[in-house]
Amino acid sequence: MAIAAAPLSNTLNESLILGFSNLRQARTERPLVISRGRGIFIIDEDGKEYLEASSSFYCAALGYSDERLIEAATRQMRQMPFYTSAQHRTLPVVMELAEKLASIAPVPDAHIAFGTTGSEAIDFLMKFMRYRNVERGEPKRRKVISRWGGYHGGTMMSAALGGAKTLHDAFALPMEDHLFVSQPDFLNAGQDGESEAQFLDRLIDELDQTIVEAGPETVGALIAEPVSFSCGFVIPPAGYFARVKQVLDRYGVLLFNDEVVTGFCRTGNLFGSETLDAVPDCITMAKAMSAAYIPISAIAMSGAFYQDLENHSDRHGVFAHAGTYSAHPVGAAVSLEMLRIIEEDSLLDHVRGRCTTFKARLGRLRDHPLVRDVRVLGLGGAVQLVSETASEGATGVSGGIAKALGEAALERGLIVRITGPNAVIAPPLVITDGEIDDLFDRFERALEDAGKS
User: Fold this and answer.
1) Strands (E) located in 60-201
2) Burial class (CB in 10 A: 0-12, 13-18, 19+), 216
3) Cα–Cα separations (whole angstroms), residue 352 to 54, 188, 236
4) Residue 117 near residue 123, CB atoms below 8 Å
5) Which of 123, 146, 272, 340 could form a disulfide with 226 if both were Cys (CB 3.0 to 4.6 A apart)?
6) Alpha-carbon gap, residue 158 to 256, rounded angstroms
7) Per-domain residue ranges for the chain?
8) Are 188 and 391 in contact (CB under 8 A)?
9) Predicted pLDDT of residue 400
10) Residue 237's Cα: distance from chain center in Å?
11) Per-residue pLDDT tens for 242-257?
12) pLDDT tens figures, 5-47
């Protein structure tokens, strides 16, 4: 049977469900269809080029045409395209990647478990936490604290850790083991007359009270993004994570940092935990780990956390957990190549070298009449617009100027991530100074267009 030709550009999309979209609109209006990529640019089916300033959900760290990653995948496909790592069997490429990640992860004596997606890594970590606590004779420690408006994934467990009550209610998510505290968003959540130091004190008191009211013996961990991209790129006040860790340690609660977005050079260090002076017990990673060329994710857990897993496994004779595609050998090969590129191309130095231009161009927008605030860290930042002041997070429905800005940017050949009142900008890490200027030239023109709409 002959394979049907690709759909024409004037046909609709009757079969595909597109996330973070209005489903009726996605079915009745043809979406933007991308046909190829070149460096930091993507090209649609009609040949129009866009500068992808959000790295496609913050993950295409090396852009869209790195031949070394393609070759790494091809070599592994030819050598051994697939085998499940489980039942005391694995592959050399998986072992090598685990050793490499353990050597660079910002947790002491790191041990590595693999998944396929960031959501899966979060889910697995919560499962491992419960396994650990059963071994320690603390099976009631199932509750997890997260922050309103955050984003930790799309599975039942990971979705319940983020967003807002409207999201939880819409999907009827199981919420009995979830606790929430505020985002460290001084601009939008600070009270009148409150200093940033006083705001931080209030957040720490809130965390302490949340644990006490829940019963410390029932709380297992707090999970947080070092920088909350989902809330419009919220950067916590100085000292935030050190203060948080003091409270958690007092009650025997673990700190999990979700580095799915912030890992691998985005914040100006290899991991966001390093940039924000956080000392987590475990981290999750994905996205830029393979530059998004192949799905793969990982959990790095401290030696102390791992030891309880090993003890429990030894007691029962088996660690009854695996994933068919976890540690997929092609994903492992691409991830190893990504790590070689970070080292051999001095990618971290490249990112740091571009930060001056990126920060300067973003800062120029601060005095624009439509701009309330700009935030920047490493090669990431956000523009918050004046007429919309709430940090709605990734699940908020953007309207007004924010929506108009996103549409105007598309017309100008620029893709930014609109979340609530914010335009988040996080281009591929290989961007040049000239391309940064191109990005912000387009953004400034789009901002003017939005102001006229």
Assistant:
1) 111-115, 143-147, 178-181
2) middle
3) 18, 28, 20
4) no
5) 272
6) 13
7) 23-65+351-452, 70-344
8) yes
9) 86
10) 20
11) 999 999 999 999 999 9
12) 455 566 777 899 999 999 999 889 999 999 999 999 999 999 9
Of 274, 173, 287, 279, the closest CA to residue 229 belongs to 287
Pick the CATH number of 70-344 from 2.70.98.40, 3.40.640.10, 3.30.70.260, 3.40.50.2300: 3.40.640.10
For the CA atoms of the chain, what is the radius of gyration? 22
Longest dimension (CA), the chain: 72
Single pTM value for the model:
0.94
Tell me if domain 23-65+351-452 and domain 70-344 are identical in fold.
no
pLDDT in tens, 363-408: 999 999 999 999 999 999 999 998 654 444 444 444 589 999 999 9
Instruction: Report the chain's mean pLDDT, rounded to a whole number.
Output: 94
Q: Domain 23-65+351-452, what architecture?
A: Alpha-Beta Complex (3.90)
End-to-end CA distance of the chain: 50
**Interior angle at CA 43, CA 294 and CA 340, nearest 5:** 35
For residue 282, what are its two tokens? 């475990």
Q: What is the arrangement of strands in the sheet containing 143-147, beginning at the earlier edge strand? A: 111-115, 297-301, 282-285, 254-258, 219-224, 143-147, 178-181
Structure tokens at 92: 């050399």
Rounded to whole angstroms, what are the CA distances from 364 to 407, 412, 440? 22, 19, 10
- What lies within 8 Å, CB to CB, of 91 at 6+ separation is 80, 83, 85, 329, 332
Cα–chain center distance at 77? 28
